[in-house]
Automatic annotation (TrEMBL):
Domain PPM-type phosphatase, chain residue ranges per copy: 169-387
Coiled-coil annotated spans: none
Superkingdom of source: Bacteria
Xref: SUPFAM superfamilies: GAF domain-like, PP2C-like
Keyword Hydrolase appears in the UniProt entry: yes
Keywords associated with the record: Hydrolase
Keyword Hydrolase belongs to the record: yes
Name assigned to this protein: PP2C family protein-serine/threonine phosphatase
C-alpha cells in the first residue's frame, strides 16, 4: 500500500523528470532492489530507460529478441533470473499500458529473499501508465526519452495532432502505424468512440514537409469539429472539403472517413479519392471495398455536392485495413513495390497468430522498412479496425 500511496502522490505532484525517483521509492516500499521505467521509442524498436536526474541515460533494450521485448509485445509479465547460482537475483518485466496503448515496460529487480506478487506489480505498472499518460504533456523529459533521433518540425506538427496508436473496447479495436516516424509530413489518422459508433479516418495530403503537415492538420481539425458538432458522414465530408478548399485552394487531401456500429457491425464510409479499404476474414482477403465514392477533400466543388456513403455489413472477427498509397507503393532499390498482396499477407499472418492489433501493425512496419533498407520514398500510414462483439448480433 505504501507503493500505491507514493504513486498517488506522484500522480498529483510529480514532474515528468521525477518519475525515476518515484520508481526508486516504490522499490523501497516493495522491498525490491530497484524499479526502473522504460518507454518505447517512436519507431517501436527499443525500450528506453528514463534517466535518473542529470545522469546519463541507461542502455536501451531491443524489443525483438529480449525478455523485456516479450513483455512489451505479448502484454504479459515476464520473469527470469538476473544472475547466477542458487541465490540469484530475479528481474520481472511488466508491460506498462494505458488503456490499450503500449507505453513501455516496468523492470523490477528483486533480491533472492524478496517475494513480490506479480499481480501487485501489474497494479504498479498500471499506475505508472496513468502517470505517464497525464504527465507527458506537462514537460519534455518523457518526449526526449522516447526519441532516438531529432524529430523534424513537420513530424512534430502531425504527432501533436494524433490520438494514441492503439484503442480498444470489448467489441472493437483500432491500431495504427505512421512512418517515417521522425520525418512524416502529409499522412495522419484519427478515431473516436461515441456511444455505439466508432469513427475512423485516414488522411493523405498532397505534397511533403511542413506545407503538407499544415494541410493535414487542418483536415484533422475540421474533421473533429464536424464530428463533435454532430454532423453525419456526408455533411462531415462537405465541411472538411469546404475548409480545405477555402484555406488551400490549390491543394487537396485524400481520405477515408468511416463509421462502425459496434453493436451491429454496420460500416458506413466515404472514400475521398483514397485507396480502398481491405476486408479481411478468417485469415484472408475477402474483397476490396469499392471506391472512391467522392472526390478528394478540397476538390468536392468540382463534382456532385452529395458524396456517396457506401455501406458494408461486417461479420464477427472481421478486420478492415485502411492505408495510404505510401505503403503499397514503397519500392526496393530494384524497383519492386511492396504491393497489396504483401500488405495483406503481413497483416493476415499476424492476425492468424492471434497477435494484438498493435503488435500486428508494429510487425507490418518492420517488414515494410526491412524491405526498403529503412528508407521510405513516401509517408506510409496504415490502420486496422477489428470487430469482435461478445455475441453475434441479431
Amino acid at each position: 500500500m505504501q507503493a500505491v500511496h507514493d504513486l498517488v502522490d506522484a500522480l498529483h505532484h510529480a514532474r515528468p523528470e521525477d518519475l525515476p525517483a518515484v520508481a526508486s521509492r516504490v522499490a523501497v516500499a516493495l522491498g525490491a532492489l530497484d524499479v526502473e521505467l522504460y518507454l518505447v521509442d517512436y519507431g517501436q524498436l527499443e525500450l528506453l530507460p528514463l534517466p535518473r536526474g542529470r545522469s546519463a541515460p541507461g542502455e536501451p533494450v531491443r524489443i525483438d529478441g529480449t525478455l523485456a521485448g516479450r513483455a512489451y509485445t505479448g502484454g504479459e509479465p515476464v520473469r527470469a533470473p538476473d544472475g547466477a547460482g542458487p541465490a540469484a537475483d530475479e528481474r520481472i518485466w511488466v508491460p506498462v499500458v494505458s488503456g490499450a496503448d503500449r507505453l513501455g515496460v516496468l523492470a523490477a529487480h528483486l533480491g533472492p529473499d524478496t517475494d513480490v506478487d506479480v499481480q501487485e506489480l501489474r497494479v504498479i505498472a498500471a499506475a505508472f501508465a496513468g502517470i505517464v499518460a497525464t504527465r507527458r504533456t506537462y514537460g519534455d523529459a518523457l518526449e526526449r526519452t522516447r526519441r532516438r533521433l531529432p524529430m523534424q518540425l513537420a513530424a512534430e506538427i502531425i504527432w501533436n495532432q494524433l490520438p494514441p496508436l492503439t484503442f480498444a473496447t470489448t467489441s472493437a479495436a483500432v491500431a495504427a502505424i505512421l512512418e517515417p516516424c521522425y520525418d512524416v509530413g502529409g499522412d495522419a489518422f484519427d478515431y473516436a468512440i461515441n456511444d455505439e459508433v466508432l469513427h475512423v479516418a485516414v488522411f493523405d495530403a498532397v505534397g511533403h514537409g511542413i506545407a503538407a503537415s499544415a494541410l493535414t492538420s487542418l483536415a484533422i481539425s475540421a474533421y473533429r469539429n464536424a464530428r463533435r458538432c454532430g454532423l453525419d458522414l456526408a455533411d462531415t465530408y462537405r465541411s472538411v472539403d469546404k475548409w480545405v478548399h477555402a484555406q488551400y485552394p490549390a491543394d487537396y487531401v485524400t481520405a477515408v472517413l468511416g463509421e462502425l456500429d459496434i453493436t451491429t457491425g454496420d460500416y458506413r464510409r466515404i472514400s475521398a479519392g483514397h485507396p480502398e479499404e481491405l476486408l479481411l476474414r478468417d485469415g484472408r482477403l475477402v474483397r476490396t471495398l469499392a471506391g472512391p465514392t467522392a472526390l478528394p477533400l478540397g476538390l468536392g466543388y468540382l463534382g456532385d455536392p452529395a458524396p456517396v456513403v457506401a455501406e458494408e455489413r461486417l461479420e464477427p472477427g472481421d478486420a478492415l485495413l485502411l492505408y495510404t498509397d505510401g505503403v503499397v507503393e514503397a519500392r526496393t532499390a530494384a524497383g519492386e513495390q511492396f504491393g497489396v498482396e504483401r500488405l495483406v499477407e503481413s497483416v493476415t499472418k499476424a492476425l492468424a497468430d492471434q497477435l494484438h492489433p498493435a503488435e500486428t501493425m508494429r510487425r507490418l512496419v518492420r517488414t515494410l522498412l526491412d524491405r526498403q533498407d529503412g528508407q521510405l520514398q513516401d509517408d506510409a500510414t496504415a490502420l486496422v479496425l477489428t470487430w469482435t462483439p461478445a455475441a453475434r448480433p441479431a
